[in-house]
Specification:
Number of helices: 7
Helix content: 40-55%
Structural class: alpha/beta
Strand order of the largest sheet: 2-3-1-4-5
Shape: globular
Length: 171
């Protein structure tokens, strides 16, 4: 099984996903590290990515999931996965790809982004990401978490969800 923690920049997806991967001993991928330099340059300059920029990046992420699936390994990934079509690319990599959507209001996430000093994504791109975001649909397997909760609470809820899915698969 593969768990993609999704949401806009600043939603806490990486912080929670890293905790879950470490706690369960699962391979972890931060999707931002898969971006080609051209994408990072665009985003750093405050220019939103286009779908043409994203498709090769998403394909590489799907390849990472597929490679771990071939090894029989479950994984955890932090990836914006803002649109259903992007999630479909990831979902197509292996059976059992689930999404944990870290969502919150623009105000809450804006404050988080402004407080960061270690990320290339400028706060100005938040509006573009929120406009692009398509929340999980009822037919998409996943969980939504409200990021107003503290990191420990979010991690606990996510751990319960991921552990439950993994346990059900082993039963």
């Amino acid at each position: 099984m593969h768990f993609v923690f999704m949401g806009v920049s600043g939603s806490g997806k990486t912080s929670v996903a890293e905790r879950i991967a470490a706690r369960l001993g699962l391979p972890f991928a931060e999707a931002d590290t898969f971006h080609p330099e051209a994408n990072i340059t665009k985003m750093s300059a405050g220019v939103p990515l286009t779908d043409e920029d994203r498709w090769p990046w998403l394909a590489e992420l799907a390849d990472w999931i597929a490679a771990h699936e071939a090894l029989g390994e479950s994984t955890v990934m932090a990836c914006s996965a803002l649109r259903r079509s992007y999630r479909d690319v990831l979902r197509g990599a292996a059976p059992g790809v689930y999404f944990v959507h870290m969502h919150g209001t623009e105000d809450v996430i804006w404050k988080r982004i402004e407080a960061r000093t270690d990320h290339f994504m400028p706060p100005a791109l938040l509006r573009s990401q929120l406009e692009t975001l398509e929340r999980l649909r009822p037919d998409e397997e996943g969980l939504e978490l409200d990021v107003r909760a503290d990191l420990d609470t979010l991690s606990g809820r996510a751990l319960e969800y991921v552990s439950g899915r993994l346990g059900a698969a082993r039963a």
